[in-house]
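lol ok so funny story. i was supposed to be doing the assay writeup but got distracted and ended up predicting the structure for this chain instead. priorities right. anyway since i did it might as well share w the group, maybe its usefull for someone
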Amino acid sequence: QVQLVESGGGLVQAGGSLRLSCVASSTSFSINFMGWYRQAPGKQRELVAFSTSGGYTNYADSVRGRFTISRDKNTVYLQMNNLQPEDTGVYYCAADLTLGRFWGQGTQVTVSS
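and the output, tada:
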C-alpha cells in the first residue's frame, strides 16, 4: 500500500504564498504521474497541476504563472504565489503507480481577502 502525506496548508492573506509538500511512502514502485487537485466548498475536485517522471508539467489556466509544481523522486511540491480567495479549498496530492491511483488526505488552504 502507498501512502501520500501532505503538509504546508494554512491561512494566508490575498497576495501571500504557501508551499505544499507531498511525500509518497513507497519507493518500490515507479511513480509516473504526481499532481495536485483542489476542491472548493460546493464544487467538484479540479486538477491544479501535475508532473510526470519525464519532466513534463502542466497547470490549470487559473493558476498558470502563479503556481509552480516541482518534484524530487517521490516528493512533489506546489509553490503557490499571489494567492487569491478563489484559491481556497482542500488540496489533494495524487500519484499514479502501476497499482493504481493513490490520494493524500488533503490539506486546507484558506486565502482571506
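The two ends are 40 Å apart (CA to CA). DSSP finds no helices and eleven strands in the chain.
back to the writeup now i swear
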